[in-house]
């Protein structure tokens, strides 16, 4: 009976430690800002990425060249392929 309690307790701790080890990976794998010059980049998962310490918020915004009006947008709910 004592060994049965020990095995149940051991199984619970093993399961709890397995669940606790499931964590979010490092932020380096969460995003990759592309760079033009591979000499100044890090090689992560087959891609050349900007150093995460040098990433700025501006790297994630879309900048349109020139100006645009509503007549120049052609977005629909369902774009044809």
Radius of gyration over C-alpha positions, nearest whole angstrom: 25 Å
Biggest beta sheet summary: 2 strands, antiparallel
Helical stretch tally:
1
C-alpha geometry: elongated
Mean pLDDT: 72
Helix content: 10-25%
List SSEs in N-to-C order.
Answer: HEE
| Portion in beta strands | 5-15%
Name the quaternary structure: single chain
Number of domains: 1
The end-to-end distance, rounded to whole angstroms, is: 67 Å
Poorly predicted runs of 5 or more residues = none
Number of strands: 2
> Strands of the biggest beta sheet: in what spatial order?
1-2
Which class of secondary structure composition applies to the elements?
alpha+beta
Descriptive overview:
The chain is built from 1 helix and 2 strands; from the N terminus they run αββ. A hairpin with a 2-residue loop joins β1 (42-44) and β2. The chain has one domain. The chain has one helix spanning 2-20; strands at residues 42-44, 47-49. It has 81 residues and is of the alpha+beta class. The chain is 23% helix and 7% strand. Strands 1-2 form a two-stranded antiparallel ribbon. The model has no long low-confidence stretch (mean pLDDT 72).
Q: What is this structure's SSE topology?
A:
Elements: H1 2-20, E1 42-44, E2 47-49
Antiparallel strand pairs: 1-2
Feature tags:
81 residues; alpha+beta; two-stranded antiparallel sheet; 1 helix; signal; RmlC-like_jellyroll
Short description:
The protein has 81 residues and is α+β, with helices and mostly antiparallel strands. It is built from one helix and two strands. Keywords: Signal.
């Amino acid at each position: 009976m004592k060994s049965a309690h020990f095995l149940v307790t051991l199984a619970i701790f093993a399961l709890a430690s397995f669940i606790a080890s499931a964590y979010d990976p490092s932020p380096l794998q969460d995003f990759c800002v592309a760079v033009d010059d591979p000499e100044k980049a890090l090689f992560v998962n087959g891609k050349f990425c900007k150093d995460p310490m040098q990433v700025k918020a501006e790297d994630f915004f879309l900048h349109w060249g020139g100006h645009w009006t509503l007549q120049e947008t052609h977005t629909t709910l369902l774009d044809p392929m």
